[in-house]
Amino acid sequence: MKELKTNVTIQNVWEARKRMSSIISKTPAVESFILSEKVGRPVYLKLETVHDTGAFKVRGAANKILSLTEEERKRGVATYSTGNHGMAVAYVAKKLGIKATVCISNRVPKAKVDSLKRLGAFIEFCGESQDEAGERCLVLERKHGLTVIEPFDDPEVIAGQGTIGLELLEDIPALKDVVVPLSGGGLLSGIGMALKTNDPSIGITGVSMVESAVMYESLRAGKPIKMPEKDTLADSLLGGIGMDNRYTFDMVQKYMDRAVLIPEDEIAQSMAFMIDHHRMILEGAAATGIAALLGNHIEYKDGAIAVIITGHNVDLTVVQRILNTYNPA
Ligand SMILES: *Cc1c(COP(=O)(O)O)cnc(C)c1O
User: 182 in ligand 1 pocket by Cβ < 6 Å?
Assistant: First the structure.
């Protein structure tokens, strides 16, 4: 495997695990008998939905914020994500008694603003786009010394997500393949590094939606690229990877064995499948991993497969719509 310029190590992941233990609990890995039967090997669901915020992003946010100095904590943290990362930053900051500012464009839906407020975040409205909110965040950093918590391209965030890899090694001794929803790549970088450092024969599959798969297209182009965002059920997988990406582009290139892209109708079908067979609500991003299995998009070796069930934050109106068009196979 190619040497990386910048390195997040397995020691960093162990440190993350220790640092986070006061606020993050280990999550269950449960076998799905119906999926095991369909695929012909044991399939485990790694339930990152059980965190308080309903998604894995609390791991990276917790490790990053806990690694700040006393001085930095006093000045506070900032983010411009309104999705699972923004919720995670607000949640962790509240637990630690740190002030969190979320920069939000005036176009963000009220329901999202309300749930961030409920977590005690300080909301700053700025401009009409995500870009303007991001710029405001940088001003807060320069002028007021707030620390901007990056959603994926940060060593502490990557190490935090990597703790999922340690838990998989402990709980699934026969593990041979892991299916990881992929956007900015913090999750895949952390899990991939943690697993392959221990056992290079474990296969890592990255899954994205067909529309706006920015990491996938960037890897093909050999450098970070920009793409327009299209509507998708996997909204948590939207967003660029950063034109000046420092860590995750190289790490995903190094640790991902194969990439799979899932069309929208299969994401919908997989969300409904999980409600039908497991009585579990998944958001579209998490359902891409299930779709990769149901659609036979991957050829596996022997041994157990783990699918990272990354989150369950989806509007019930979306769930309703999906159930209406569900067609049980
Ligand atoms: C952020 C997120 C992902 C992708 O994680 P990256 O580190 O950006 O690749 C997948 N699923 C859910 C639910 C997310 O919130």
Answer: yes
Question: DSSP of 227-242, one letter per residue?
Answer: ------S-GGG-S---
Whether the pTM exceeds 0.90: the reply is: yes
Q: Between the CA atoms of 131, 137, 140 and 146, what dihedral angle is there, to the nearest 10 degrees?
A: -170
Nearest-angstrom CA–CA distance, 127 and 116: 18
Ligand 1 touching residue 288 (CB < 6 A):
no
- The number of the ligand 1 atom at minimal distance from the alpha carbon of 186 is 7
**Structural domains for the chain:** 10-56+154-325 (3.40.50.1100), 58-148 (3.40.50.1100)
What is the residue with the minimal CA distance to atom 8 of ligand 1?
A: 184
Instruction: Decide: 187 in ligand 1 pocket, CB within 6 A.
Output: yes
Mean pLDDT, 10 residues at a time, the chain of 329 residues = 75 98 97 96 97 97 98 96 93 97 87 90 88 90 96 97 98 97 98 98 97 95 93 92 96 97 97 98 97 90 94 95 90
Atom of ligand 1 nearest to the CA of 55: 13
